[in-house]
Amino acid sequence: MSHTISRRSLLKGAGAIGGGIALASFAQVLGVHAAATNDDPQTILNLAATAETLAVTFYYNVIVNRSFELDEEDEEYLRFALGAEQYHLDFLMSQGGKTLTSSFYVPSNLLSNQAVFVQTGANAETAFIGAYLAATRIFGDAGLGKLAATTAQHACSEAEHLTLTREIGGLTPNNLALPLPIYYNVSDAVPTLAPFLRGGAGFIGPVNYPTRNQINRARLTSDFTRVYVMAY
Q1: pLDDT of the residue at 65
Q2: In a domain, 82, yes or no
Q3: pTM value surpassing 0.85
Q4: Domain assignment of residue 113, given as a range
Q5: 132 touches 48 (CB < 8 A)
């Protein structure tokens, strides 16, 4: 049953993000293959770092380059989200994760159509949540409790981003009792995110990951709490 739900959710999410583009093989892009059993830790770290690099690039460009209007409080949220995604990325890289690409493709009207931004962001965050939940399961199976709790923290953060993205779009902010565990392995998420790597009809790019100075100027100057389970 869980396998059926995962496959249906994967295809639905990929179709929404890709705008009808056929699923591309992420393995062809990054040389990563879904494992028959559990993903190894390096694969998890690399894929998570790549996803966080995409998230930073996504939020930065919406903050700086969009042409549609947002309420002041909604823009404040996006600036907080940008800082959080960069914090996630910094942690993953400190643990040996390597971003497998720093250039991405995005829907051509992402920055001019608020509805496209909301749909794209919500589906991407759903994929990120599912991937971090899969990482939590894998690290738990391996007896790595602190690392499992840390990836659970990441999933919680991404769930907040999903909720607030939906709120920006006028949708019910929290429509789920629990975040969707749509992937068994982290690598199962890669077809969903493939359009951002491969592009295609309706996509433009590549769009480059911003510099650290650009990120610092775009995120909020006020700090947020940075506490990881791994620190204890």
Answers
A1: 97
A2: yes
A3: no
A4: 2-22+39-220
A5: yes
